[in-house]
Amino acid sequence: MLLLLGGFLVLMLLGVPVAVAMAASSLLYILVSGVTPDVTLAQRMIAGVESFPLLAVPFFILAGNLMNIAGVTGRIYKFAVALVGWMRGGLGHVNIIGSVIFSGMSGTAIADAAGLGTIEIKAMKDHGYSTEFSVGVTAASATLGPIIPPSLPFVIYGMMANVSIGALFLGGVIPGVVLTLFMMATVTYFAHKNKWGSDTPFSWPQLSSAGLEIVVVLSFPLAIWLMVMAGLSVNVSVVIGLGTLLVIDWYFDFSAVMALMAPVILIGGMTLGWFTPTEAAVAAVIWSLFLGLVRYRTMTLQTVAKATFDTIETTASVLFIVTAASIFAWLLTVSQAAQTLSDWMLSVTHNKWVFLALANVLILFVGCFIDTTAAITILVPILLPIVLKLGIDPIHFGLIMTLNLMIGLLHPPLGMVLFVLARVARLSVERTTVAILPWLVPLMLALIAITYIPELTLWLPKYMGLSK
Q: What's the Cα-to-Cα distance from 54 to each of 59, 157, 165, 311, rounded to whole Å?
């Protein structure tokens, strides 16, 4: 255990990429201990990515890239301005609401920060907000990406923990609302403290238009249900509903109805059993292509090709981490390291609430140093047996782990959202870190609420019959 973990930590301190550090320390352990033939390294790494749920990873990444180049981010921003821009500290609220909507399509915090963040930070600076405040609220709202479904970390966790990815997606809905409310309350606090006004004049026509878009989107599943109750098949009802929606959207030229439909289609399709979470990722790509090529006509073959190559690059790095982490996690198990760590934690406490507090501290610490995918792959084999022994629902624990790791993305030394926003805002990493610090308060308060009120996570999956 010391050789495996010690080698990994030494390589990390030397600045070796996390995936290479895990693979190299795993190979060193195998060669020195002789616990298994060295060819096992390749076999286990290949086995680590031979998983149907992992097919969702490249498709969700591609969907996020396509949404960015299709101009959907600009339309989401315009919709959010109409909805909440008139409030005090308006563009701060716009930033958060925009992230909520984009979260229903991309599933990643980095796509949110890089896509919407570019638009939002520039707009906030043009309206007189400080760069630090603009960066802070953008960073905090980007954490919503993997909490509100769909979510790439949920896919990885569901695969590792052998729990329903659909249940994890549904479990993220209410915690996402809680996070949103805490962040909007923080914007309101800063607005009153600094005596900020609104950023756009209050306009009944604009607000009514935004409200009408929400009504149109929410009426879609109701209309489908009514048609099914009237005797039409589900497929025919969906075709009629989508056709009607397209006509309404074209006639009124709504800014974000079709973008708002993405999470409705994905969650609705999974709930009704039309497709699995993995197939939902393909549906997200098809919907993105439809918006960019047909509805908005903002895509070209060149931009689609660029999004595809960007996706290949990102997917390769993510899956390389998964392959390296899979052999590392397997060796932690066969070397009894995971069992030793599990026994040690159980010797400290058998109270599940105390364990959750300790787990939060551990995952927060790990999230500051290790990539989200690698952290999930390493920590799940160690912590899940304890979670099950103490009677903690693994879906609830999945939300806790993901939120902790999202907060870790905002911290040096390896916080990717931190580095993306530092580049977008042209700030030093040090100034960006200081700008994010106040936003850790609402994030930590939301983490405490989600940790110690399990029903925030479990009520919806139980209601939909996806959890006991």
A: 10, 10, 11, 14
DSSP state of 454: T
Tell whether the model's pLDDT for residue 400 goes beyond 90: yes
Judge contact between 101 and 256, C-beta under 8 A.
yes
Q: Residue 448: its pLDDT value, please?
A: 95
| Stretch (H or E) spanning 265 | helix 257-271
φ/ψ of residue 413, rounded to 5: -95, -10
Asked whether 139 and 370 are in contact (CB, 8 A), the reply is no
Structure-token match 């909440």, residue found: 84
Question: Minimal CA–CA distance to 415: which of 370, 446, 377?
Answer: 370
Domain spans in the chain, listed from the N-terminal domain onward:
13-26+38-202+256-463
What letter would DSSP give residue 295? I
Helix (H, G, I), strand (E, B) or coil at 453: coil
Residue 352, judged by CB atoms within 10 A of its CB (0-12, 13-18, 19+), counts as middle
- The CB density around residue 197, as the number of other CB atoms within 10 Å, is 10
pTM greater than 0.85 (yes/no): no
Taken in order 150, 152, 156, 157, is the CA torsion positive or negative? negative
The pLDDT score that the predictor gives to residue 420 is 74
Taking the C-alpha atoms of residue 58 and residue 155, their distance in angstroms, rounded to an integer, is: 11
Supply 216's token pair.
């149109």
Both structure tokens of 11: 């390589």
